[in-house]
Structures are given as C-alpha cells and as structure tokens.
C-alpha cells in the first residue's frame, strides 16, 4: 500500500521509492525487496511501468498508478484508517487502564506509609 | 558520487548471477533483460550513495533472485513440467541407446530392466545438476562457473547412477525385449523434432539481431561438420583396433558422440 501511495503521488523508479520511504523513517532491511512487490502490483494491473532513457548508465524503469490502482488505493486507505483507529482505541484504553492502576497503586502505597 | 571499479565488478557479478537464475527458471528473455536493467540501475544508484550491494539484495543473492522470480512467475503449469521431463528422458535415451549399439556392436540390442532405470537416473542427474534450486546456487559467483558446476554435478550424479546400476545389473540378466536399429533412428528423429519445437518456443533464447543469428548459425555449422568428421574417424579407428587402444578410443568416441548429439539437438 505504501508503494502504491508513493506512486500515486507521482511516477517514480525503484530507488526513488526507497529514498522516499527512508526520508519518512521507513528503512528497508533489503532495498531490493520492493521489486517483487512492484511486480505483483503490476501483475494485478494496479500500476504500469515504462523505461526512461538515462544519460549515465542503464535506463530507469518508472512506475505510474493505473485507474484500477487508484480505486484499490482508496480501498486500502479506508481499511488502514479503520484498522489503525481500532488499534489506537485499544492502545489508548490500555494506557488509561495502566494510568488508573498506577494511581490506585500509588494511593495504596501512600496510605501504607501513612500507617 | 562516482562508482568505483571494484563496486562495478561486484554489481556486474550480482546481475549476472540473477540473470542466469531467472533464465534457469524459464522467465522470458525480454522480461529478464528488463529486470536486469532495473536491478543494475538500482545497484549503481545505491553504490553512488555509498551503500553496499548487500543493502539492496540482502545476504543471499539467490534468495533475492528467487523472490523476484516467484513474483514474475508464481508457478509452472503441469504441462510444462511434463514437457521438461519428456525432453530429458528422450535426450537421455539418445545417450544410452547409441552407446549400447556401439558396445554390443549390433544393430539390435537387448533392453534390460536396468536400461530404463539408467535413462531415468541420467535424466534426474541432468535435472538436478542444472536446477537453479538444488546444487548450483550458492556454490559459485559467476554465470559460466554456475553452468560448469551444474554440469559437473550432473556428470558426477550420472556416473554414480551408472556405477550403481551396473553393479546391480547381474541380478536382472533377462532382457525385457529386443530393440532394433530403426527404433533408435525413429527415436532420434522424434527427439530432434521435439528439440526443434522446444527451441522455437524457447522464451529464454537470446534476443539476437538477424546478423548475429547468421553468425551463430555459421559457427554451429562449422562445429557440427568438424565433429562429424572426427566422429567418423574415431569410429573407423575403434572398429579396426583392439585392447587398450580400443578402450581409449571408445571413451573419446563417447565424448565426441555426446558433443555431436548435443550440437545436433540444440541446433537452431
């Protein structure tokens, strides 16, 4: 989904995607792992690719999002927001409970000391 | 930042390794060329930024090549698998049967139970030796060495199989049936036709220019003519010699015969 979102912003090539992810704090263990993912996205007709001649070295392969890809990205975004909201709610509830427990524990300790 | 020569050399080796892996996985040549260009470009960009090759492909180049290959070609259809094995069986039979004709000095040869077993083992050895998954990966770093290592392992396995079967053959001395010379000729024709059919449909074939194709055809024709002359000369010597000389000439005859047959079958 992240790769599709990056490609949706503007057409880009593999290394550029890795750099953009890195700028956002998402370091990949193996940069090349994006290529099988890109291939699957292309296979599912969510993205299209084309080569751009390069003055230095081999040509660059650019990827752009397809109309089907845009629809799929919207769908994935909705699913992600819904999922992340649920996770956030659970985590916030956990933090609130933790704070509550800590307050009770703290009060008990104060009472003990007073006694 | 410029990419230094050792890094370029390493990148070239990695790209070559991936290329041969993808071709052995029967990914179409045009697609392999695209994948190679994309990978090389990424590795050069990464090297220019001072990143090591491992940062891009991880520690295992074949695991990386395999994950990409699986994304391109998720599975092989059953018909393709059957075609692959039928071809291996036919070509293996065309190694064993002529050897038997020569060994027995006869147009009609007895077929024992161990003959089809030998053919199957030879086919399996070739498959195993040249498989991108089993023996070849991880042992070598370059394309040529990979093919040589694969072929070497195929030969070792074939020799092991032949030795085992020959040791056990005394147990099965009764021939199953007699195999006439015209059956061998017929099978050779079928194998050749099958091979030509496969070559024409080979998606991994190099994308050569017409001129390059003509140059290669001329080279193959030259090799074939030379091998045929050599084979004829060796056969004549073998038929007119005896003892150790005959054994040595027989071994050469087998090697030249195999080369002749390989050239004939893979002729484009």
Q: What strand line-up does the widest sheet of chain A have?
A: 1-3-2
Assign the structural class of chain A, choosing from mainly alpha, mainly beta, alpha/beta, alpha+beta, or little secondary structure.
alpha+beta
Q: Tell me the total number of β-strands of chain A.
A: 3
**Average pLDDT score of chain A:** 83
CATH topology-level name of chain A: Arc Repressor Mutant, subunit A
Name of the CATH superfamily of chain A: Winged helix-like DNA-binding domain superfamily/Winged helix DNA-binding domain
Q: What gyration radius of chain A follows from the Cα positions, in whole Å?
A: 23 Å
Largest interface: A-B, 22 and 22 residues
Q: Which band does the percent of strand residues of chain B land in? A: under 5%
Q: Which bin fits the share of residues in helices of chain B?
A: over 70%
Strand fraction of chain A:
5-15%
Q: What are the segments of chain A in which pLDDT stays under 50 over at least 5 consecutive residues?
A: 111-115
Number of domains of chain B: 3
Please, what is the oligomeric state? heterodimer
Shape of chain B: elongated
Order of helices and strands of chain A: HEHHEEH
| CATH architecture call of chain A | Orthogonal Bundle
Structure description:
The complex is a heterodimer of chains A (115) and B (268). With 115 residues, chain A is of the alpha+beta class. Chain A has one domain (2-114): Arc Repressor Mutant, subunit A. Helix content of chain A is 66%, strand content 12%. Chain A has helices at residues 2-9, 14-23, 34-43, 67-114, and strands at residues 12-13, 47-52, 60-65. Chain A has a 3-stranded antiparallel beta sheet with strand order 1-3-2. In chain A, a hairpin with a 7-residue loop joins strand 2 and strand 3. The longest helix of chain A has 48 residues, at 67-114. Chain A is elongated, with a radius of gyration of 23 Å. The termini of chain A are far apart. The relative contact order of chain A is 0.12. With 268 residues, chain B is mostly helical. Chain B folds into 3 domains: 5-72, c-terminal domain of poly(a) binding protein (Orthogonal Bundle); 79-98 and 106-205, no CATH class; 208-268. In chain B, 74% of the residues lie in helices and 2% in strands. Chain B has 10 helices and 2 strands; from the N terminus they run αααααβααβααα. Chain B has helices at residues 5-24, 29-48, 53-57, 61-72, 78-104, 114-129, 143-168, 181-200, 210-239, 243-265, and strands at 109-111, 177-179. A two-stranded antiparallel sheet of chain B has the order 1-2. In chain B, helix 5 runs antiparallel to helix 8. Chain B is elongated. Chain B starts with a helix and ends with a helix. Residues 135-141 of chain B have low confidence and may be disordered. The A-B interface holds A 13-15, 18, 29-33, 35-37, 39-40, 43, 51, 54, 57-61 and B 34-35, 37-42, 44-46, 51, 55-58, 64, 67-68, 70-72.
């Amino acid at each position: 989904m992240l790769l599709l979102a990056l490609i949706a912003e503007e057409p880009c090539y593999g290394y550029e995607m890795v750099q953009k992810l890195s700028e956002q704090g998402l370091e990949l263990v193996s940069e090349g792992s994006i290529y099988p993912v890109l291939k699957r996205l292309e296979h599912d007709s969510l993205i299209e690719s084309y080569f751009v001649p390069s003055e230095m070295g081999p040509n660059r392969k650019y990827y752009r999002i397809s109309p089907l890809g845009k629809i799929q990205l919207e769908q994935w975004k909705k699913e992600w927001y819904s999922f992340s909201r649920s996770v956030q709610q659970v985590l916030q509830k956990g933090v609130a409970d933790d704070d509550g427990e800590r307050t009770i524990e703290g009060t008990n300790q104060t009472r003990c000391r007073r006694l | 930042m410029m990419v230094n020569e050792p890094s370029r050399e390493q990148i070239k080796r990695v790209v070559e390794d991936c290329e041969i892996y993808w071709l052995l996985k029967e990914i179409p040549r045009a697609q392999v060329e695209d994948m190679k260009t994309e990978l090389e470009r990424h590795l050069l960009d990464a090297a220019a930024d001072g990143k090591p090759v491992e940062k891009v492909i991880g520690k295992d180049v074949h695991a990386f090549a395999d994950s990409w290959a699986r994304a391109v070609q998720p599975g092989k259809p059953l018909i393709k698998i059957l075609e692959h094995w039928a071809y291996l069986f036919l070509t293996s039979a065309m190694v064993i049967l002529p050897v038997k004709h020569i060994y027995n000095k006869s147009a009609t040869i007895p077929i024992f139970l161990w003959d089809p077993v030998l053919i199957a083992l030879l086919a399996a050895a070739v498959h195993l030796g040249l498989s991108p998954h089993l023996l070849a990966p991880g042992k070598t770093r370059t394309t040529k060495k990979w093919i040589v290592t694969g072929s070497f392992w195929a030969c070792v396995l074939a020799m092991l199989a032949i030795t085992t079967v020959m040791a056990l053959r005394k147990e099965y001395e009764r021939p199953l049936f007699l195999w006439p010379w015209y059956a061998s000729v017929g099978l050779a024709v079928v194998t050749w036709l099958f091979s030509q059919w496969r070559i024409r449909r080979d998606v991994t074939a190099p994308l050569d220019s017409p001129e390059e194709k003509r140059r290669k055809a001329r080279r193959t024709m030259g090799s074939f003519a030379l091998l045929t002359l050599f084979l004829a000369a060796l056969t004549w010597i073998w038929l007119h010699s005896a003892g150790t000389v005959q054994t040595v000439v027989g071994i050469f005859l087998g090697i030249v015969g195999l080369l002749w047959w390989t050239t004939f079958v893979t002729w484009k």
